[in-house]
Batch of 3 targets.
Target 1
Amino acid sequence: MIVNENVALDHGLKKDEYKKICNLLKRVPNITELGIFSAMWNEHCSYKSSRLHLKNLPTKGTRVIQGPGENAGVVDIGDDDAIVFKIESHNHPSFIEPYQGAATGVGGIMRDVFTMGARPIANLNSIHFGSPQHKKTKNLLRGVVNGIGGYGNCMGVPTIAGQTSFDESYNGNILVNAMTLGLVKKNKIFYSKAAGLEKPVIYVGSKTGRDGIHGASMASAVFDEKIEEKKPTVQVGDPFTEKLLLEACLELMSGDSIIAIQDMGAAGLTSSSIEMASKGNLGIEINLNKVPCRETKMTPYEIMLSESQERMLIVLENGKEDLAKKIFDKWNLDFAVIGKTTKSKKIELYFDKKKIADIPVNILVENSPMYDRKWKKNKLPKKIKISKKQFKNLKIINVLDKILSNPNICSKEWIWQQYDQTVMGDTIQKPGGDAGVVRVHGTNKAVAASVDSSAIYCWAHPLSGGKQIVCESWRNLVCVGAKPIAITNCLNFGNPENRENMGEFVECVQGLGEASKYLDFPVVSGNVSFYNQTKEVGIKPTPTIGGIGLIKNYENMITMNFKKVNNKILVIGKTEGRLDQSLFAREILNEKNGPPPEINLFNEKNNGETVLKLIENNFIKAAHDVSLGGIITSIAKMCINGKKGASLKKPKQLIDPFEYFFSEDQGRYIIEIEENNFKNVTEILEKNSVHYDDLGTVNENELIIDEKSKLTIDELMKSHTSWLTNYMGK
Amino acid sequence: MNSSVITFPGSNCDRDMDVALKKFGFKNKMVWHNDIVLPKSDLVVLPGGFSYGDYLRCGSMASKSKIMQSVINFAKSGGKVMGICNGFQILVEAGLLPGVLLRNKYLEFICKNVFVKINNKDNSYFKNIDKETLELHIAHNEGNYFCSKDQIKKIDDNNQIALHYSDKDGKINENNNPNGSLKNIAGIFNKEKNVLGMMPHPERMIDSSLSGEDGSIFFKNLINNLK
């Protein structure tokens, strides 16, 4: 095939990008080379629109061993143990083919983690769908949940937490973000930097097929009516082979044979070989006839661009080939020496004894495009005036019933019951709490993890929204008694070529950076997903944060369920009563305008650290943060989970009960303490200048807001649990 | 007491079972599916997981593994063989237990705590357990036990049902049948009661921080009965 500008445009490259390629090569690329450029220079692989802004994120900290730039981030959790973790999107493929899209998303992120030598110990996910009324939503939800379960369950890695939301802005573009945590010894971490000349380059895992060709390019473009035609670009997952690959890789890693290892994810053999060469400042030579292929007559172009799953590329020490081959034979996996490292600093491909590609590595990597896209600043919306007259016809218990059964609040049990949450025998907090918690096998330590996003707040004001999610992640970890350590982010946005979308991205990232810097909660890994857009309609900006924290002694872990009758209930943090952008304002009053809740980073940090202090002193029996749905929603969930009631006092402040109970002011927690500790606890709170309200006590089985407003636990449970099961028709 | 846990390609509860057996005093060995000789064992366990990806029919490929001939011989000579979840499926495919395990009634994977009522205590697995019901954990996609009318009659006549899904108080009905199993069957024995297959995972319930502790009751009792 003759390469010209039109062929380049068909590959998703821009005119000037094609011109740049010809200039750098000083010739016209052949079709295989053009394919390689298009794979490396698309948005998904090159971060060309985001790199400039991501540079400003705080990525360092005392516990950070590896920040962004590797397969995943790594943090120190003491005693020579480290946690490897990352979140990644698989949005575009999941919309086109929900089961395989979601499954391979989970497979891909686990591979990123065990490529670094870590055994995956927990999975999380954040999934977002269109309006429940939209005709595609139900099938997409079912397919995605089946896919996540199908892959994770088979791998034998527990899914310990997640988040699901519904919003019409996802009607044409759902989001599937998958996160994995792995455990590794600090001195056994593996990296992707090749080193040494004439070292064998090894291909292991599944055979290469024609699936997923141009997957990364597909994920770098807006959807249109021809979306069904893109099905062949979705990869097909084989979790059984990945389980074998995991065990085989860890077995090989226990020795000293591996110099560098990189999984073949987006842009397959192309990006894995080029990344290893680039990081090692070396060249790489590959004989494509040696690549194990699943189908006959595959062309070099197809082999280089296939995104077949469950494959790894390894640079081995000389002489270790036989030993390595023995291990992969034992696990029934393909093993082939396909090339070697060279001093040429070029990627050189051979096929049928002819050289079919010859590109200097630095052209592909360092010279990849970087754009300073135009972006529009977002003003803080004016506060809305909510007339209290509107509350007159409302009854708190009716409103609470509606909110508990709202698709974005209700119990997601139907989803998480389809995930194996307990395999590996170390899950000590399952989905449904503030964070999932797994023990570090064989120790007293435990790791907590949570995924969060607040697209509504980010849409209303990206800067505040960006800060808010980081704070929410931090709070969720604090609630289970974990000291927050670090985060990974998955930045899901619309079309970056559009000033509004780019503005949302830039300011969300800015907010996110400010909060993570202030809270000493650095970003160690992440992924950007742009072009979540169908024609002109993009998603609400949805940065997702995956946070992890450490519990030094797992017996001190906290859960949210109320524990004992007559224990006292306190609200930590001040309630201002602002309703703008609260679920109450949007769903009950139908008021969609106004600014999101204000973030006060000082209070956030101070309140969280004080709660952790109370936990250390063993004062806290249950804790839950106040988020979507306000104080009363949090209390209701604590009642439901603990199968206990609560008798609430009328709040002292002179604000309206609706404002008090439903506002979503930030930096707040509900805690349960024993009555005889009340003095000790309030002293600590006062000493640290933390505001608190004495809200009432735990009772047997009824939520009593006032004499006229009572709900039994059964009633609360029914409103909380029935929506999703009814919706899915069971 | 010596035990052996067989690892098939795709097993993923093999380590959990190893941890549980050791915790309660077994000297456990991990055995690779391609081995031919079974180490000297008082108990052989086929663990949960997705042997061969469950791609053909759950357990069918694993039931033809090299080690299985030794396991079958061991069982036929009266040795204690226990299959949990995928291990249960393998035992059924190997012909050591009657019946089949179909996909769950609602075609969904189910992971949750359930109660099971012990139906037969006259065997090494459940003898001397004080409680009538245990709270255990299930995590499976194909746990819907089924067999022919003739088979169920024989199973009943020989008192081969080990466990029924039930409520907390041991009541057995459709409401507490998580997967559509015939007669709420959660586990069965062979005729001689030396082979047990069950869907619930006792190895996931072995300390107070996990989903529960009734698995500890099961293992403590088991090792005492085998002594």
Target 2
Amino acid sequence: MRGSFSSLHPAVLFAQFFIVVFSSMFILHPVFQGIALTGASLYSFRLSGARARRFNIAVGLPVLGLFALVNPLVNPGGSTVLFMLGMRPVTLEALLYGCSSAMMFTTVVIWFSCVNAVMTSDKLTMLFGRIAPATSLVFSMVLRLVPRIKAHVRSVACAQRTLGRDASSGGAVHRARHGMAILSSVTTWTLEGSIETADSMRARGYGLEGRSSFRPVRFTRRDGAVAVVLLLCSAVFLGSCLQGSAGMSFFPRVSVAYVPVASPLAYVAFGVICLLPAAYEVWEGRVWARSISRI
Amino acid sequence: MGAFDIAHLTFRYPGAAVPALEDVSLTIEDGAFLVVCGPSGCGKTTLLRHLKPVLSPHGDRTGSIVLDGTPIGELTGREQASRVGFVLQDPDTQIVCDKVWHELAFGLENLGLASEVIRLRVAEMASYFGIQHWFERPVCELSGGQKQLLNLASVMAMQPRALVLDEPTAQLDPLAAREFLSTLRAVNRDLGTTVILSEHRLEETLPIADGVVVLDCGRIVAEGEPRSVCAHLEAARHPMRRAMPTPARAYLEVEGASAGEIPIPLTVREGRTYLAARAAEGAVAPTSSPVDVGARKRDSVESALELRDVWFRYARDGEDALRDLALHVTKGSWHCILGGNGAGKSTALGIMSRAYAPYRGSVRLFGRDMRRIPAKELFSGLLGVLPQDPQALFVHDTVRADLEDVAGATPKAHALIERVAEQVEIAHLLDRHPFDLSGGERQRAGMAKVLLLRPRVLLLDEPTKGLDAAFKERLARVLERVRADGMTIVMVSHDVEFCASHADTCSLLFRGSVVSTAPAREFFAGNSFYTTVANRIGRAVRPDVVVEEDLVELCGGPR
């Protein structure tokens, strides 16, 4: 499902995801982690509904459990011994550290599932069209070629099967030989096709001086507003982190940093950043509902 | 402006003994719709590519090509990119980008236009060509017709004065081809763009063309207004006259090249007018006994292949692609399966070749359940499959090596290869690379590979796609020959005319089931829309007119 947040300018989306993924990856501070996980989960629920909920619970919880259980078994650090497992002490710190890593892992996975759904290939092409036009074109061409080659491999394999040259059954040598034959035929086919593609590119003036890059979306005021919010919050968040408000250590004993003023500010700023996608969806939903009720 | 002036153009590929183009002189007026035709390998593509300098082949060239007063070689890269648009044959390979919008913008990006300008032009093109509904789709999800339309639109976005198209509809089905050609006609009429088009489908293109150029062996053999070209070809008894539209062929057959007062008919409507005129003269014999073409006696009613109430779908929650499909192919017959796009033709062929398995129903090959036949036995001696793209059959560097791959390299196998090569008329091509063959040659070489496995049933998927009239006749001859050896032929096709002249039995597929099966003549005589051109012209007078010969006879011409 495509939400309204994903209709923002690719650059804004990229900035948003860059900040949340990056910070989720490195921060172990429980408050920030909680915020990030909440934001990620809420948005992924909005994006893919029940399926995401099922996935997050079915995968997230076991991973959480696994990390939480395995870490204490292999990590003997920490000073609060809960009990002894044979000769090894199982410590509270190691248990918490496991939970924290699991949470980080889950959060990042959920964020990436959102990135995957939102940052479609054409958004990436648009985004990098300006900065790296050649690379962006190659990227687009590769995306064009891959499904074509896949379809062709299928048709060659199918045709070869009817000649009694099956690459999917028989002995290893037999399969390898037929697989190689298919591969070589597909390679020739691809090269041949690319000659015509090159013709078509030259016919449309590829290689002329001063190639421009078309971006079908505009940077609107809406994008600008979101970008400003993101920028401000990131500045506050970053500044506060430099003050040490994201500090967290588990060993030898758990200590969670709290810097007066800076910490609450950072919580609010980070909260805004992480909850922005989900909040935006809700907000747009409201706007839509209100406009409907007016009709 | 988009006027070409070609004077005494002669071109020879490096190392070639004979020139590919010889003394070609041609004036193409601004806004003209010109069709270039000729047998495969006659130099059509070479000529068209000369109109676009970046695509011109390398070789020895004399003569001149002038575009709107400027010799074409003197155009700057930017000028030639934007003034002459070029659309190639294969809808797939010429698409560069992965998304429709990006492809539309590709040429404009190359010209270095600003985003705002590109946005406007892309929007204009998408609206004009009706692309806005699939504007954001990935290209790989489009149909062949949509892809070719996209190619046309992305060339038109650059606002060329002249549009050159090299057999753009060869890979399309008839419906998509018709749509493409009518769009092309609109471009020509509405925007005044000069259109230069090479085509095999003269039935649809000649009526909309202003001029026709017929090339043969690199020379212009006829040129001018379509009707006069038809008359000229007939007078010269040139083989290309067989590629002209059915009504024109029948007319010239009856009237001779000297032609009467009625202009040569090019369309079904004109053909009917002509027939009515003949009837008024009392020359039409509607009561004569039905001619016996195609309706051959069946030697047996024994079945070669039988589909019993087959159901199939591609995905669990998907729609049924085949529903309750029942088909009975008689041993030794030539059975054609016709139908529109998405009727399930290819799926049915997939079921017959065991590429897919039905979820309900069964397939019987010579009375045996196909599921029970081991693959080794099935594909060596029972079933031969010629895929739509015969290129998929070749995995070696020469045709000979590919044939040896299935036959073996013993002297006995060589004799067999020679014999089969003779049979399908590829003996002169054995040492060529399979990818260097033309469409028709590739089709026959593929058939040779399949025939070496000595199948008893041959399945063909659209074998006439992209072939010109001469190659089609050759293919028919080859198929006729292998059938005489006792082979059963099952063919999926869009080519109504080909099926009408050669098949014994035809089936019409609609939404995954067979709606009618009948001997070819009966089949086409019974249909009113899905039928041959000759039938559409003659059916009002006599419904059993199916092929051109019937029409000639009906008009009182020589048989």
Target 3
Amino acid sequence: MTAISAVSALQAALAAENAAVYGYGVAGAYLAGSKQAAAIQDWTDHSEARDTLSAMITRLRAAPVAAAAFYALPFAVHDSRTARALAAYLEDGVTRAYLGVVAVDDQRLRTFGALAMQAPARRAAYWRGSTQPFPGLVSAP
Amino acid sequence: MLVASATTLPLLLAASGCRSSDAFDGPDPLAGRPSPGHDVVVLQAAISAEEALISLYVTATATAAAGSASAAGPELLDSLLAQHRQHLARLRGALVLPPGASPGTTASPGTTASPGATASPGATASPGATASPGATASAGGGAGGQGAGRGVVARLRTAERASAAAGLRRLATVDPALAQLFASIAACDATHVAALAALA
């Protein structure tokens, strides 16, 4: 198996965080009450994670990937139900990206990736209303 | 008949273009079964720990079915138990042992044996194989009723938290694909901790 580059794995995680920051901006507009408060908190968490990843990538002497001005949504968001589905989708993407970090050779980065994927996995379960057996893994045999 | 002795074998190998080191490199096939590799040892420990957690859930679901204050409790516990069984199947699927070798564990997914009592001595001596606090306790603990239900849930949460932490310790030194499986299972355990909070 080809070793995964630490920088490329972190860049993928950063790209997922950027997408989540954008996506929560959309989802939050269709939520109210405690759900909207949760979305705002999640948006804050993703913004902080984005800054953390950017700093890590810079320390590795690479330029952090920039956020896009616009992201194509995976489906139309027009109410609370689809907003929650979008939030779960975004969290799945972030979880998957951090799982990529777990494949690098550096043990500290592996542990970082494994720890970092737990928060989006929990948030995905919250928005979906159920837990998944293998967060981040595309499919189970 | 050609008989190779210690003195004639190097000559035969030289004549065939082989060096003697080509013939004798690697483990002696007659020296007995080689000790399992690091990943196998770590994987066996993970399997043992997952079996212990499943045993804890089996006992907990029986307790919940007997009289939980929360109607949603048994359904949630069944769901979480099913996911742990999926973990166990996936972990066992990753373990490839030579024919005749013991997997190092004895429990079946549905066992009702006392939690933590099924790990083999070899598995418990392995890195990261220490049983979680919740897995070593009796899941039924105490008198029946709502109080016992909360106690069971508290033990499950403790066991899930310990399982997630153990998964993080295991993934540092193994093959990347196995590390990702451990990380994914640990993340699932973390979601279980949050889900169980609803029953606490």
